[in-house]
Amino acid sequence: MVFIGFYGEHISVGYASRGGWDTFGPMRLITKSKDNILYELDGKSALAVYKKYLGDKASGLPGTALLFPLAIQSENPNEPLVRTILAVNNEEQSMIFAGDIPQGAQARFMKTNFDRLIEGAATAAGASMSETLTTPELAILISCVGRKIVLGQRVEEEVEVVNEKFTNDTAIIGFYSYGEISPFNPSVSCNFHNQTMTITTLSEK
Q1: Is residue 76 over pLDDT 90?
Q2: pLDDT at 51 > cutoff 70
Q3: CATH code, 160
Q4: How many beta carbons lie within 10 A of that of residue 59, not counting itself?
């Protein structure tokens, strides 16, 4: 692993993370989980409840799970943590996620809305500049590989809408990841995310 630190009175750093997924169905209590494995929602088999909501798409699991991640209630009720489903265990009736699923937390199912995913990327770009006083000179974009798979041929659009938020003076670089670490915005604590667009901006005052 490589770590790079920037510090000084003249550097300004902005950051934000957004998903853009639509939630649906009632809020449910995580009644049984361990680390990244979910067993029960509201005292019922989580996998059985999940399959019921997916309907015909349940036959495509775990592949179709990319289209239906889980929302974990965070400290910001308007921006839940997104958790990607990696696999299902039919014998244990459990679901394995790409991040911790805290027992006692609340959760809702999510579904794909392509326009909202792209809008989420644009919102992340705007939020990343909310605390800075100058136009960023560099923007680092980290998008989840799950978003790339879901968006398919439209994947370039999320980069295009982000680019429109910055000026021609902003250099943009980035890559696809298997998880993103960032606060939603400067006013909240840092979290681990799945299937989001996470942006860090750097500028010199």
Answers
A1: no
A2: yes
A3: 3.30.1330
A4: 9
Residue 71: closest CA among 34, 33, 32, 26: 26
**The pLDDT of residue 18 is above 70:** yes
Whether residue 119 lies inside any domain: the answer is: yes
Domain membership of residue 126 as a residue range: 11-19+113-204
Give residue-wise pLDDT tens across range 93-133: 999 999 999 999 999 999 999 999 999 999 999 988 887 76
